[in-house]
Structure formats: C-alpha cells, structure tokens
Amino acid sequence: MALSELVDAWLHYQRERDAASFWAVDHVMVATASRANPEHAWAIVRALFDAAPDDLLGAVAAGPLENVLTYHTSVVIDDVETMARRDPRFRRVLGKVWLTTGAIPRGLETRLVRASNGVLRPFPNPRGQRRRG
Question: How far from 33 is each of 30, 38, 86, 104, 129, CA to CA, in Å?
Fold first, then answer.
C-alpha cells in the first residue's frame, strides 16, 4: 500500500469517523508502536503532519507522534529538533503530545522540551519510575 493511500484514509477517518477507514488508524498505531521500524514510523508521522490541516494536528500528536517520540526518540530526535527549529507549526504539534516524565531517557526528554520551546511539558509520573537509558 502506498503511503499516500494510508494518509488519505487516516485523514478521512479523523474527519468523518467513517468505520470503513478505521483500518488506517489501526495500521498507523501499529506501524508507529514499540516494535515498529523507526524510520518507517517517522516517515508515516511526517506524511501525516504534512497532509493534516491545522484542526487535525492534535490527532497527529495524540497517537502517532506520541508513539514515535516514546518508542523511537533516539532515532528521530535530530530530525525532530531540525523540524521544530524550522517549522513553528511542528513546534505547536510537539506541545500537543502527552509524554510522561521518565517515559524516555532524561537527556532525550530535555531535548524534546527544548525543541518545543518549552511548550511540551511532560506529565509527572505517578509511580516515580524512570526508564533506563
């Protein structure tokens, strides 16, 4: 399946909540999850971000981007910082991500917060646990 077909179906579902397009939401969530290929996951998020109108950016952040930032931060952090530096729209999307303190190594968390100009504010971890790394 072409990436453009996936993106179109994902956007259609976000707009219309059409059950026939839910396959795209499912595919995106699996393709950006912990066992996914990080480069492929990042390519999907980039394509969704590029295609999404402003009113759907929260949907890009709440799921696909959160997955990539949680599970593949070390692979995408340089690209994230570059995009955030160049694109105010992307910085705003970073601020819509829900990230729990300690979900990623502290150094990467600091870089993400800095890339967002402080708009991304990780939520406190109620268990006080930190991920190793």
Answer: 5, 9, 26, 14, 21
13 in Cβ contact with 25 (< 8 Å): yes
State the total domains in the chain: 1
Q: What one-character DSSP code corresponds to residue 55?
A: G
Could you read off the pLDDT of 98-112 as tens digits, one per residue?
998 888 999 999 999
Q: How confident is the model at residue 19 (pLDDT cuts 50, 70, 90)?
A: very high
What is the identity of the amino acid at 97? V
Domain ranges, residue 106: 3-115
Q: Is residue 126 domain-resident?
A: no
Residue 94 inside a domain? The answer is: yes
Decide: 11 and 52 in contact? Cβ < 8 Å: yes
Cα 25 to the center of its chain, rounded Å: 13
